[in-house]
Amino acid sequence: MANLPHWLIKKTPKHENIKIIRSLIGDKVNTVCESAKCPNIGECYSCKTVTFMILGNICTRGCKFCAVEHAAPTPPDPMEPRSVAEAAKKLDLKYVVVTSVTRDDLPDGGASYFAKTITELRSSIPGIKIEVLTPDFHGKEEHIKTVLNAKPDVYNHNVEMVPRLYADIRPRSNYFTSIRVLELAKKLSPGVLVKSGFMVGLGEKDQEVFALIRELKNTGIDYLTIGQYISPSQDHAKVVEYVKPEKFEEYKDFGHSIGIKKVISGPFVRSSYLAGSY
Q1: Cα(20)–Cα(106) distance, rounded to whole angstroms?
Q2: Which domain holds residue 187?
């Protein structure tokens, strides 16, 4: 961290806020904030902003950029959807983001757990706004439909990076499957806001980024997030470039110029950063 450029230096998280949030959430609920070692955890927890992670905290994919543990997962906890709703109620949340690890071992990829979690949240907290950040479900329409039928307010699925980098960094995922997920989400539920996001700093070229933004626009997305990749450890993919803040502004301006409703672009932006504020 000592070699980070000045625009990526962030104050040490307020550990007391992390402890307070963790004590309110309890041990039965996971957050991607902790599992993925998000650099914004102190800022978000101090504002009582949390991204819940369902289906456990072990992923079946093992992408080279991600800090979430990769191994054989345990069976899902049938009480997890209710536990998430109870935690959200304790925190008095008005906007909730629910994501998950990828569960290729489950017949529906965990889609039914997303639906159950949405249902529990709406039952516990009337008027709550819900954003889901789903895995790709192998692009299967019936699983995407299962989540959408539970009526989230925002359906988010990240492409994560430009397609050229998939073979090396996301070898068990497919870029075109992710594009299909976004297209299906907008087609199946035109009234739902559709969102995606990706990272830069992994060796992509400018023209690849602009091409990706354009392709995402063509899927019908409403919101887009773009952030800097920061390697979680020496065992993960290395950072190729620390992209300057003005370049993030250029990406944002381009996205807006081609008609994307809202583009959140900056070094510390993550897919759930400032969610609910736009």
Answers
A1: 33
A2: 6-265
